[in-house]
Amino acid sequence: MHIVVCMKQVPRDNSVKINADLTINADGIEQIMNLFDEYAVEEALQWNEKLGGKVTILSIGPEDWKEQIRRALAMGATDSLLLSDPAFTNLDTFGAARVAAAAIKKLGDVDLVLCGRNSTDDETGAFAPALARLLGWTQLTYVGKVVTLESGRIVAERHLEEVVETVEASLPAVVTVVKGINEPRYPSLLRIRKVAKVEIPTWSAADVGLSAADLTPRLNLVNRVPPPPRPKGEIIEGKDATEKVARLVDKLMEAQVI
Amino acid sequence: MANEIWVVIERTAHGDMAGVSKELLGKARELADANGMKVGALILGAGIGDLAQVAFSYGADTAYVVDDGALAQYTTDGYVGTAAALAKKYQPALILTGAGFQMRDFSAALAAELDTGVAADSTNVMIENGTVSAVRSSHGGNVINTLTFAPGRTAVVSVRKQSFPEPQANPDRSGAAVTENLPGVPMRAKVVSVAPKQGAVNLSDAAIIVSGGRGLGSPENYYKLIPPLAEAVGGAYGASRAIVDAGWVPYEHQVGQTGKTVSPKLYMAIGISGAIQHLAGMRSSRTIVAINKDPDAPIFRVATYGVVGDANEIVPLLTEEIKKRTGR
Questions:
Q1: Is the Cβ pair A220, B148 closer than 8 Å?
Q2: Can you tell me which residues bind FAD (chain B) (predicted)?
């Protein structure tokens, strides 16, 4: 079975700044693998250990994203693909889905695509559903357990807010996973050394047959601001805990929140 | 492009109209009235009953109804295939959905099917001179984006609950019900079973949330202090990532960048220092109470009311005082 994992590199924390041209400035913030994608990588590796085949890490980004691709290879992924082109710099979510769909079609033999439920930076959760529709494949989001995976068929539990849905679907499929589906492994030192020099295949827009027009954003960013500051708060003082508690409850009753 | 705003109607487990759908009908009505447009309710399902009338009472002019056994359970193929066929036929200018998991699945796939974009988990939507724009946060609430849809394409916007007030229902309002048939769409997924989640907690719906963190010292302290206080204030209880990862509390309860994003009217953060990932998930709460030993904890920078002190001493007193005053 050939499983592709779509992996995004994101800032470790979101204390980002906004540049004058409305782009995001994450200078000085460590870049990591999107947390939810780590679960996707681990899930792919576990099924690969049972079923054989290969696990390809696919990422759309600049050259320096190879660091996170290498991390996934050191975890145990067998193959990798970086989609990198100046034309990809300002992709919206659906533009990214178009690039990934073109690459997956070109790979040709893919049975399953795994993604994290969303990225922790843009937080749209729309990439995987868009990818599934563009490929014309089944889509299963918020999966907390893959029960069965076999040729042409998947059974998975979708963990929704209040219920767990067990769904049976046909492959090929695009599946997004939630935190808690597994415990992602650490890359082994041996493998880190082994993959340090591995060449990561890189495809451009032309390689996947996309033009600039194909990548036109469907949504245009017209403004980007930090959130409004919260009104200044108040530290409740008192001679002891009992007095502080009484004053706090006074405030909460005055504000009619309890 | 028709002059219509559609609201995709969601149901509760009991089959009633979900609160978020009422909120969206209210917003759609307001936008339609200001822009000379109409409101359509898209009602998909099986045994839909009088939902069309409910939609009229909350502001819809037209209800597009597909009542078919194949839509008894949500599947992406069934719901998106049907909605896309109807949207192509009637060409609404804007389609609004809630932003729960099922509708996030739906709205993104629908937008792709209609070759448009989706403004996901938005908190506001505007129409000006025929152009639809939406406001959504990213980067854990540290960035607020305004996005504009290209004219001539149906705009798809999923909206976070409680972004708009629920309108007053007017049972005398009526409208036109349009019955449509299920189009021929491939159905590649089948829901085999649906089970209630064990220990399910719908933090997104809670008006009050009491959360605990590592400052409580132990899982025993968490369970001794946090659920009783949550019960006293009639709220749900949450947790920081640190104690979820440490195995004190199930992931269901995690508030933050990799857990739930919440904006209740009251959020109480107890023994939570306020890592940026946690602040990301709760900073838009209306009133924030922080209780922490460390006066320099970052949580105090977002708190409306802060109490410096040991949670193990303060929380039992607070729980008792609230019970006494509210008579719970």
A1: yes
A2: 214, 240-241, 254-258, 271-278, 292
Which residue type occupies A109?
D
Looking up residue B108, the CATH number of its domain turns out to be 3.40.50.620
Please report the number of interchain residue pairs, chain A to chain B, with beta-carbon separation below 8 angstroms. Answer: 259
Best mutation target, A93, A133, A168, A222, to test chain B (most B CBs within 10 A):
A133
Please say whether the dihedral angle defined by the alpha carbons of residues B101, B260, B96 and B12, taken in this order, is positive or negative.
positive
State the Cα–Cα distance between residues B47 and B274, nearest whole angstrom: 47
Using DSSP, state whether B38 is helix, strand or coil.
Answer: strand
What pLDDT, on a 0 to 100 scale, did the predictor assign at position B200? 66
Which ipTM score applies to this complex? Answer: 0.95
Q: How far is A197 from chain B (nearest CA, A)?
A: 32
Mean pLDDT of chain B: 95
Residues of B within 8 A of A252 (CB-CB) are 266, 287, 289, 305, 322
**Count of domains forming chain B:** 2
Domain that holds residue B242: 203-326
Confidence (pLDDT) at B1 = 57
Chain A residue with Cα closest to B115: A218
**In-domain check, residue B144:** yes
Residues B96 and B154 both lie in one domain: yes
Instruction: State which residue of chain A sits closest to B205, comparing Cα positions.
Output: A161
Beta strands in chain B (DSSP E): 4-8, 38-45, 62-67, 94-98, 118-128, 131-138, 143-149, 155-159, 176-179, 189-196, 208-212, 236-239, 266-270, 287-292, 305-308
Residues B157 and B247 in one domain: no
